Amino acid sequence: MTEKVGVYICHCGTNIAGPVDVEEVARWAKENLDGVVLARDYRFMCSSLGQELIQEDIKNEGLTRVVVAACSPHLHEKTFRTACSKIGLNPYLTQMASIREQVSWVTEDRAAATHKAKMMVAGAVRRVQLQEELQPTEVPVNPNTLVVGGGIAGIQAALELADAGHKVFMVEREPSIGGHMAQFDKTFPTLDCAACILTPKMSDVGLHENIELLSYAEVDSLSGFVGNFDVRVRKKARYIDEDACTGCGICIEKCPKKVVDEVFEAGLGYRKAVYRPFPQAIPKFPVIDRDTCIYFERGTCKACEKFCPTEAIDFEQTDTYLDLNVGNVIMATGYDLFDCGKIPQYGYGRLANVFTSLEFERLCNAAGPTEGHILLRDGVTEPQSVGIIHCVGSRDKQHHAYCSAVCCMSALKFGHLVMEKTGAEVYSFYIDMRPLHKNYEEFYDRLLQEGMHFIRGRVAEVTDAARLPGEDGKLIIQAEDTLIGKQRRIPVDMVILLGALQPRFDAKETGLKFGVSAGLDGWFTERHPKLDPVATMTDGVFIAGTCQGPKDIPDSVAQGAAAAARVQGMISKGTVLIEPIVATIEEARCSGCRICNTLCPFNAIEYLEDKAVSYINPALCKGCGTCVAACPAQAISGAHFTNDQIFAEMEGLLYDVIGSNGATVKSPQPALEPA
Amino acid sequence: MSRSLGNKDDAFLNEVIEATPGGEALVTCLQCGTCGGSCPSGPDMDHTPRQLFQMINAGMRQEVLQSNAPWYCVTCYYCMTRCPKQIPITDLMYTLKRMAVRAKLYDDSDAPDWSSSFIGFVESYGRSFEFGLATRYHLTHSPLRKVGVGPMGLEMIVKDRMPLRPERIKGIDQLRTILDTAKSLEGV
Amino acid sequence: MRYGYYPGCSLTGTARPYEVSTKAIAGPLGLTFEEVEDWNCCGATEYMSLNKTAAYALVARNLALAAGEDKPKDLVAPCSLCYLNLRKTNHYMAKYKSLGKMTNQALAAGGLHYTPGSLNVRHLIDVIVNDVGYEALGARVTRPLTGLRVAPYYGCLLVRPDLNGGSFDDTEYPTHLDRLMETLGAEVVDFPLKTHCCGGHMTQISAETAYELIRRLLHNAAEYRADLLVTLCPMCQFNLDAYQTQVNRHLGTDFHLPILYFTQMIGLAMGMEPKALAIGQEIVSAASVLRKIGTAVEVEEAPQTRRKRDDKSLPMPRIREG
Amino acid sequence: MSDGGAPTPEKGKLALYWAASCGGCEIAVLGIDDKVLKVAEAFDIVLWPCVMDGKVRDIEKMPDKSIDLCLFNGAIRTSEQEYMAQLLRRKSKVLVAFGSCAAEGCIPALANMNTREEIFQTAYHDTPSTDNPDGVRPQIETEVPEGTLHLPLFYDTVKTLGQSVEVDYYLPGCPPEPDRIWDALVAILTGQLPAPGSVIGATTTVCDTCPRTRNEKKIKEFKRTWEIIPDPDTCLLEQGVVCCGIATRAGCGALCPTVGSPCIGCYGPNEGVVDFGARMMTALASVIDSQDPDEIDRIIQEGIPDPIGSFYRFGLANSLLRRKALAHNGDGRVAEPA
Amino acid sequence: MSESAFEPKIVGFLCNWCSYRAADLAGTARMKYEPNIRIIRVMCSGRVDPTFVLKALSLGADGVMLAGCHPGECHYIEQNYKTIRRFKMLKHTLRALGIEEERVRLQWASAGEGALLASAINEMVDQVRELGPLYWPGNWADNEGSQDAIQALPREHAEAMEVPA
Prior knowledge:
Number of strands of chain E: 4
Structural class of chain E: alpha/beta
Radius of gyration of chain D: 23 Å
Helix content of chain D: 25-40%
Number of domains of chain E: 1
Number of helices of chain E: 5
Oligomer: heteropentamer
Structural class of chain D: alpha/beta
Order of helices and strands of chain E: EHEHEHEHH
Strand content of chain D: 5-15%
CATH class of chain E: Alpha Beta
């Protein structure tokens, strides 16, 4: 081995130097480890002076490899790599040993800590000598962006990008954009009308010259890599010619088939078989629902076609596919509401006047089935008392362990609306009130003043089985009022269940399609929970809004904008560097057995039929190394994590077992401990 | 990572957890009240289960073991099934009963005595014996009430639903050995 | 179909009608029950109150006696309380290793051993609706229970606790007994308190508490104009039947609701003689309501499915299956 | 290989030796057919116990490095074999581990799943055909009136040639294919050799030469050969048959899979692989089509009842762990510092 | 040697995204755990080739821990499922070679589960300490008396076998 290794042991103040004898580690490394030409200990290696120390040594001593034993590489690997590359040493020729997180902070005994630190330094020293220079590759970024999902987060992201002059393709599954927000009546805590603030943004999207809106469409497949994604979009047949349709709505008027609207009206209202979810829908074109249309059912009817003034009805339409090329993707696919029927003791689906939060939004909405009148399921009676149940499916290990973040504020909003519109008594049953953001606590205070009743206790059950005076004909909410410590039964006319926000039913499948992972709870995982909240593990794919976790409108908008800003950064730079930690297949060794072909979730591995070998696209490879470990011919190697590098590290870590020459020795470590 | 560092109150908590299969979940109690709200005999309890858990957390051994709540438990398992933290509440109630009896802290003796009368028959015959149980227990505890339910007992006998003689299982000695061993293993 | 059979103490006493009717229908339904030899009491809700390990050992002795190469793998208990204790012990011994180990140490003192999970503990109704099946059962109905308004009463311990999803039916809103009664031709009321508590052992130690719980059930069933309650648990039957008079006297009510076992109902529908099913041994006589069977009763008109023009009502939520 | 007319260079010296092996390698040498004559042209054979008489002491007396080429087949399982390996190493310029036994232990090394004691127990006591009323066991030294008789020491652990002495080249195969033998001889004679210590052979695996069609692999169940009649054109592994061709060095011409029998791995691992079994394990496990731990367990337990036989049939001695744990392991261990 | 003096040496392979971060967290939270584990960072538990485990054991490690993201939480979507399969396959083989269950362990630890990782390490160290040293190379280091036997051979050849001319 001809490499010249410099070893630097960081004191980290007393963080390391306290529990570890750093001088001893440095002395030992210099004396015992092959290749080490110098070993220093220093108070703070990450300080500019510490970095200069390394740079001086590279310059003066001709170091070809650098080992820094300090904190976790997750903190400062980049720091030291940059420091080395500034002076001309390839950044991948450095290695860190995490002797703070893995030694000094977790080990009680000083001798044991010092010994472990030595072994870790030995591992790094062995490994670093086998490390190779690596160069990131640079690829151009296509300035077009795909935004998946036209809810408020997606809308915000699309507008930010489009306004900045970049082309955006927006794909929306439903016939109109708007998402859940379009279903809401008011927004908390300001009580703005949701439609009033949302619809202008929706029409901006519809009219924007830089936005191509693909509604009633879904992403079929995604391939390629950051800067250069190929997207195939399936535009579902609308049976309406978008070029001819003026959006006059006569077809809807004339359609004889009325069905329950399970999506926009949350199952609480009706729509026609040809429909537009709501009057302000963007785009304005209706959709013929093939599953309920009389013509598709029986082969006759065509009332819409007869009356359409522009002959825009086309029953022969089929799904079409669109191939797009984009540089980045923003996923804003939103959430589903928890199926409240899964908690049978709350009676949803059995007791008529138990509603979900989304149903209630529609009930409240002037454009909804009751024109904004809060009425019981009979459609006539106004409730005189309403119970609101929090945490339905949230904070519950049997369903979703997480807090859905928006329900407390929804409860306050609903309480206000009920009292304002009906004068009914409102009871809110909560576990903890969480009005966390700006002006939220003030809103809580307002509702207290308005006379809403708050009962701290998770509801045990909702029943129509009366047993006390005053309960007949009511829904009785039974709960422990935990602040009193007594069981209470509150008879009400209407119950609103604040169902949990949960990942889309097809989130897992979507995640696989886009190379985005999800946590155990099913929400998409951000690259870093604090410091990289909208990026994902797949470069060039960003997440925004509730697909990442429960959040309210302001947070969704902020994430939409943040994702757009990240994309703009990529577009401005024009190129991206692709991490060189990738796997490669040595063609001469590959027998084309195809074991590896199914192993890559990022589709980086392809089989070249002509050469009968497999090939890894470095731009798609994320460097996980799974294929490297799988190759039976050992034809695949993983840069920066080669077998030899890992073996060398292992031999170093087991220095006390095998000694300096790599051969296993029988006397493990007598010479190593300071006397 | 022991939870007990520096908290003198945790001895009682740990004792309760130790004695209950799955008892560790107790520490995650949200204090949401689903248990107390669901309990059919909740109104009769001096403390709801939720309160007992907080009291256990606070190390209030005496007050907890004197509570009537565990003895009012009808073992309907509503609380345990609905608990959002999956705390085995019914099992915890059993634990508290056992601890109360051993600590001789529960002063209303009806419930524990009903249990021990029942157990007495099981340990002598291997089966329960309803007639014997009814007469023995009610005579010692509520002779007045016995009169009240008397005709019902009589009717049960008339309807051939209450045998007057207990049945003893063949392996009663084996059963006793098993039960004695179990008790000694538990350190009772 | 062969099953191990654990009757439990009640079936030899207060729940004799349950035992008699179970045995009566078993043969015709093709069920063979092999009674666990020399079984002992399951400890009810009492043993656990005083001793933990001994309580599990008490139950485990039965499991050990029931298990064996040549013995049926399914162990059936008609009593919900026995079913719970057997099922819970089976589950806990596996889930909590030290408990399982200690219990087996105790068993070893009696020369026994039980490997948790080697038996499937099942309730009688589970076997009837799942193994025999609604269809086969329906085919055997010769005297449909038409016109009889039945409140299906499940009680607590058939469906709770869940034990890691191991519950036989929904823990809050089970439907198997409903469907079973429908299969027999009865008119089933959607009984809201179907899984509420009958008072359990409270009748013995705090009668007031129990009377109130019993009253709630009877009151609710009466509200729903049920002719009778059908149950599958001896404790439920006993509390509701034997204490009904006490409740009436104590709370000034006037209930007369017979409480029968589902096995008795099956037997009736299969055309068996009431006496053969031990009908008549109930305290609240079922004689008058049973006269309804076989009598033509007007069937209520089916509710209108078509929406009236002036109907302003909002649609009910669609209930997703599963 | 000189032609008739040219002046004949001085003939080299060739030795062939046979340690723990079946003898198939000896026959394989003859498999090169008439080319054996060319070998005879190029070399004087100084030792070939299978074919001609010879005395070890004659070799012992030769000067070091006086043999130009030694083809050594067989694994090292006794002290005598190890001695011969050391002797021939000393006397030879080029030592070739010839065949699977010498290269990686092969079938004889499956004995590493047992101890010497267990093997003796079976061989000298337990087998039905054994008639050994006195319980006689081989002894290293036996005193007889005439003096002391010696037997070689039978090892607990079979070793490869490379684990005993330094080997210049490896020629894998059970036995090596005649064409490969000839290729190797040509390479040696012409000096066109890879780096010392390496295998003379291909750097890819059997699939490369297998005529069967290969697709993406997902395996729901591993099958034994007698359980299916495989489709003649599709990759055997895709049909669930554990075929080692994916991991086995090419060189045989995919003889077995071509005729419908799965590769069992006799050509050993590909270049640079340290553990053949690990490659098989990881590759097969990677394509099991299940994410359910219990199902995975079932697929593995039922499909691969004998993992050592499946993955280490030829390479146990040469694998990282070399053998099954010895009950008395730890004898040689030195105390650890406190 | 005294058994109490034995301190196992355990090699850990931790995935970069979950388990290595769990180790970071255990450190940040100052959770004390046994110093016997020495950790190698890999990008994903899917990188852990069975060869790594075999190599560690063959070098003399007393145990090996693999740690990664929980199934379903892999940062590379689903690679840890491959880890499960390989681990099970490897264990199947190790069992055949007589290596105790506790010596090779697969542990899931998410980035937030520092405490879980620390207690898993402690538990494993305890278990392996209980088992005693593995010291795998000792399995073949000796081959009982082979050196003597080899040296006897030339002596024998020289003495007994030489036929006087």
